[in-house]
Amino acid sequence: MKPFASAAEMRAIPRSQEFRNGGVSFWFRDIGLPERRPALPGSADYDVCIVGAGYTGLWTAYYLKKAQPDLRVAVLEREFAGFGASGRNGGWLSAEFAGSRRPYGAEGDAAPGGRGTGRGRAGGAGGGGIGRIGKVGRAGAGAKAGTGGKGGKGGKGGMVALQRAMMDSVDEVIAVAAAEGIEADIVKGGMRLVATNPAQKARLITEVEELHTWGYWPEDLYLLDPHGEPRLQVDGAVAAAYSPHAARVHPAKLVVGLAAAVEALGVDIFEGTAVTEIQPRDGAVRPGAVTEGGTVRADHVIRATEGFTSTIQGWRREWLPMNSSMIVTEPLTEAMWDHIGWERHEVLGDQAHAYFYAQRTADGRIAIGGRGVPYRFGSARDDRGATPPQTIAELWRVLARLFPVASEVPVAHAWSGVLGVPRDWRPTVNLDQESGLGWAGGYVGNGVTTSNLAGRTLRDLILGRRTDLTQLPWVGHRVRGWEPEPLRWVGTHLVYGLYRGADRRESDRVSRTSRLAEIAGRIAGR
């Protein structure tokens, strides 16, 4: 991406008269911002306290109350339920799992057949962006970090089981939404990945072959004729692959509906309640979540803060708050849709290193996202969700290149959000019984589905159950923290600059993966 958009480029972007930049997201603009729930009125005691009312926190609360209705569960939220990535992402409910398979598999038996795979490029698209210090976390003096993963099953078999669990989680989310009456525009049309140059095509073919050894069977992911049926006219596509394990979803409708379902089960959700510190168990004193309005003590305190983890004392370098941005058009005409196709409503992505993610919305718009300014110095965030002009210009150029027929359709909204990125780019679930602290996240943009699996896994860990979920290899996975500033700012921007340079080279003249991308991968530690 060019560092700056010229005034001429910005003028060339068609924008609707009611164009908005920021304001949480188009998804919340569509349904309206929710009425705020009351803040925590004072110190309190619960059985389980969950910090963060996004998908991870809400799914954890949901499954705990379903499994044990007498549990007293509280959810503390700094803003309102869904304010973060859960209400801003690209609406990809997919079975994609962030990061390389190899490190998980390497913890057990050796896995044959080349490098591990996962969509290890410049970001994550499973959630659509908005969709990794020795011991994991800081459980307190003498605490044993990661005890929830002591029995975790490693090896290739464990990674295959994790991938199959992700596929099942897609259907689990759909089933719960139906059972709870959550109308979230869900259409299970699958996922289509396209290649738009020879280098991308080679990567796509290799990725399909490798994923067939890591839990995707031939019917789970396969190559398509990019111009065959079902038709999705992507200009310049030279190859395509399809997986049925994905669905389009309206993120805000899902998170608002899930919060209502959780509340109906008897969970207390306190909004406008910022947690500044999470304290481990100290002798007879139970762990606690500290807020300005009081401290919540519980047998277990669960951190489900994803891209906002750096706001909590002692966790600043745990997960990098990576930015992701989106634009959405006004509705396309019927003639435009007749030209494009997209009748199955697949979620759509490509094989670029700094890649895009897109969906056809229920009301006939195109929502498309990608990385803009990837990271702000010192883990800073723009909670307003405003998107830099150069990022809007870049996303519009991608949209116009892929769908020329839609290039004159006005852009209605642009927004941004942050997602959580561990240093090794691989998500984790953990519960330390000694300290009473647990956490899940680091989804790298693949959180819509992964958060559901995390919520069910945390349920089993909290209730002391030894299940297939608690034996998956991401349970108890240990990661170190990010480098101090200015190293992490320099490194992050260097990596993304190299990835974008690689994309330019591959588009212009290189028929294989550019060496710039290989250098970026080594620097990133992926």
Please give the structural blueprint.
Blueprint: H1 7-12, E1 15-21, H2 26-31, E2 44-51, H3 55-67, E3 73-76, E4 92-94, H4 102-105, H5 155-179, E5 191-195, H6 198-211, E6 222-224, E7 239-243, E8 246-248, H7 251-264, E9 268-270, E10 275-279, E11 288-291, E12 294-303, E13 320-329, H8 334-340, E14 347-350, E15 357-360, E16 366-370, H9 389-402, E17 411-421, E18 428-432, E19 437-441, H10 447-462, H11 487-508, H12 515-524
Parallel strand pairs: 1-17, 2-3, 2-12, 3-9, 5-14, 12-19
Antiparallel strand pairs: 4-8, 5-7, 6-7, 10-11, 11-12, 13-16, 13-17, 14-15, 15-16, 18-19
Helix pairs in contact: 3-7, 3-10, 5-10, 11-12
Shape assignment:
globular
Distance between the termini: 22 Å
Mean pLDDT across residues: 86
The class by helix and strand makeup works out as alpha/beta
Helix content: 25-40%
Notes on the structure:
With 526 residues, this protein is an alpha/beta fold. It contains twelve helices and 19 strands. 29% of the residues lie in helices and 20% in strands. It has a nine-stranded mixed sheet, sandwiched between helices. It is globular. It starts with 6 loop residues before the first helix and ends with a helix. Residues 1-5, 107-126 and 129-152 have low confidence and may be disordered.
